[in-house]
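User: quick one, fold this
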Amino acid sequence: MKVLITGGNGLLGHNTILRLLLEGHIVHAIVRKRESLLVQHDNLYIFEGNFLDYDSLLLASTGCDAIVHIAAATDMSLPYSQFEKVNVGGSRNVVAVARSLDIKRIVYISTLNTIGYGTSEQLADESFQMQYPFTNSYYAATKAMAENLFLEEAKYEGRHIVIINPGFMIGRYDTKPSSGQLLLMGYRKPIMVVPQGGKCFVHVEDVALAVVNALTLGRNAEKYIVGMHNKTLVDFYKLQKRVCGYKQLLIPIPCWIVNVVGLLGDGLRKIGVKTQVQSINTRQLCIREYYSNAKAMAELKLSETSLERAISDSICWLKRNR
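Assistant:
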């Protein structure tokens, strides 16, 4: 199969390209700068361009049998207009190009935050409705809007359009870094204050496998939670210090302090200071976002890699690449 991938220069993008190539697929990748891709292969064709530009995306997609759409705006300091332009407008562009070229297979990478979070006693599944504070998040709200675009397109005959809702991904090729920032925040610090929330962690290679499998497996117009390890942030950092072999005093921080920090960030943004700190984000750090991957395990043959290996792979890659 010949597959077009957007966002190939990010954490999931690199790992998805590697998985596609491993399974013998031909990959077209559209990136702004060729050198941002760290993979070279005879079956990898790089197109310099912007997926927001219809003609550039059309050229890169020509001859392809499927599209994997990963690219998105994630910088929490951006205004809403930028999130809408990239996450919604870009997805609309992907749909238009796919329809123009009669590409019926699309895998769209969304976020867990478009699905309501659960608890350790009741894990959330794909039927859970989106919840506050994520309903007020520019990122999550625009990803939900993009999901609806693809679900509408899935109504047309012959389509195979699958939405992947990945957990907090960790692993190699975290080029920005993105999720790796969470690991670096605590790495070898003697004292670490930690919010009391939690996340559904997953090795990025497990997500990449699910994405590639979704090209042929899964059901049209369905969403799939691709997460693996539900842990509090405190337990995550305990595991990280054990895996990496250092001592650290972890101090859980009350939610009211975290929320005060968010309000201070709101104030800075109002006076024009660019910061990712804002109350909508800090509130998320106090929530335990726990999810069930039963559907993906059954239908996408989701693999299960230990969180220890995910942490080790991520830290080793970040250190090796400075």
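User: anything notable?
Assistant: The longest strand covers residues 160-166.
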